[in-house]
Amino acid sequence: MNSHSTLCFIILLVACLAGVSSDIYAPSLPAIAHDLNAPIDEVQWSMAVFMLGVSLSQLVYGPISEGIGRKFPLLVGLIIAFIGSVICFYAATISVLIWGRFIQGIGVGAGASLWRAIFRDSFTGETSTKYLAYLAILITFVVPAAPTLGGYLSVYFGWRSVFIFLVLYALITILIVCMGFRETGQYHHKNRLRLSFIFSSFQQLLSSRIFMGYALCTFLSYGAFFSWYAVGPVLLIKNIGISPVEFGWITLLGGGTAMAVAGYLNGKIVSHVGSHFMLRLGWLLMVIAGVLMLAFKFLYGINIFIIVAPMIVFYFGSTFIWPAAFTGAFAPFGKLAGYASALYSFLQLGGATVLGSLVAYLPDTDQMPLACIFIVAPALAWGIFESVVCLPRAQCYIPARNENL
C-alpha cells in the first residue's frame, strides 16, 4: 500500500534515475575518449544521444500508462535501462557505447515521463505543494551529487565502474517498484490506447497555448542547463587540468548549493510575488550568468573561477524555473496526466538533446560557446513566456497563488 512517505521515496528513486544516469558520466568524458581512442566530440555527443533516447521514449510511455496504468510501463523501462547500462559497461568502441547510452536513455525515459504523472495521480492541493517541495529539496541534492560520485568512481575504479553503479541503481529500483509500489493511475483504460484517443489527447495539449508555452520555455531553459554537463568537463578537466573528482565537487558544492538556496528562497517568497515573477527572475539571472561568463573571457581569459562563478549564478536562477513551469503547464490536465507528462518531458529533454548536440560540436577551447548558450536560450524562453503564456497580458501581473510551491 502506498503511504505518502513510501510513495515519495519511490518517486524520488524514479525521478532521479535519468538525471543521475546522465550526470554521473560527465567527469569520465576525457577518460573515455582516451581509453576508447575516440574524438572528444563523439564522447560528448553520447550524452546528447542519451537524452535523445530519454526524450523520444516519453511519447510511448505516457500513452501506454494511460491505457494500462503506470506500474507495468515503469518496470519495462527500468529493465531496458538495466540492459543499456550493461551494454555500456562492456563497450569496447565508442559506437557500442553510444548505442548503449541510447538504449539506456530509452529505459530511464519511463521514470522521467511517469514520475510526474504518478505524483499528479497521488497528490493534490496543499498536499501536492508540501510533498513537491520535499521532493524538490531532495532532488536538488541527489542529482548534483552524481558528478561527484562519478568523479570518485572514475578516478579510483575506472570509468566502467560508473555503469556498474547504474546497473545496481536500476536493479534496486526494479525490486522496490515490484514490492512497494501500488498502481496510482485512476483513469487508465484500454480505450485510451486507441489511436483516435491518443491523437485527440496530444492535439488538446499541442493546441493549448499555456501548456505549449511553458513546455517550450522549459525546452530552452533545460537545454542550456544540460549544456554545462556536456562542455564543463572538457573545459575544466581537459583544458584547465583539474581532476574528475574536483569537477564533481565543484558541481555539487557550487551548483548544488546554489540550487538548494534558490529552492529555499523560492518556497519563502513565491506566495508573496507569484510564480510569474519567479520565472522572470530566474531567466534574468540565467542571462546575467551568460553575460558574466562572456565578459570574463575577454577580461581574464580562461580559468576555473571565471567559468564556475557564472555557472553558480546560472544554477541559482534556473532553480526558479522548474517548479513554476511544471505547475503552470500541468494544472489544467489532471485527467490527461500521462499524456501531459510524456509531451512535457519529451520537450524538456529534447532541449537537452538539441543544445547538447550543438555544444558538443562547437569549439571547446574556451567558454564562449557555453556563454552564448547561457545568454540566448533563457532570453528566448523569456520571450516565449511573455508573448505566448502571458496573453492576455493582464494575467501576468496577478500572483498565481494556486500555483505556488
Structure description:
The protein is mainly alpha-helical and 405 residues long. 81% of the residues lie in helices and 0% in strands. It is built from 15 helices and no strands. Helix 3 runs parallel beside helix 5. The longest helix is centred in the middle third of the chain and has 33 residues. The protein is globular and about 60 Å long. The C terminus is likely disordered.
Class derived from helix and strand content: mainly alpha
Count of strand segments: 0
Shape: globular
Stretches where pLDDT is under 50 for at least 5 consecutive residues are 397-405
Q: Estimate the strand proportion.
A: under 5%
On the 0-100 scale, what is the average pLDDT?
84
| First-residue to last-residue Cα separation | 26 Å
Biggest sheet record: none
How large, in whole angstroms, is the Cα Rg? 20 Å
Order of helices and strands: HHHHHHHHHHHHHHH
How many DSSP H or I helices? 15
Portion of residues within helices:
over 70%
List keywords for this structure.
405 residues; mainly alpha
Summed up:
This protein is an all-alpha fold and 405 residues long. It has 15 helices and no strands. Helix 10 runs parallel beside helix 12.
Topology:
Elements: H1 4-23, H2 29-35, H3 40-68, H4 71-90, H5 94-122, H6 125-157, H7 160-180, H8 195-206, H9 209-240, H10 244-273, H11 275-300, H12 304-318, H13 321-330, H14 337-360, H15 368-389
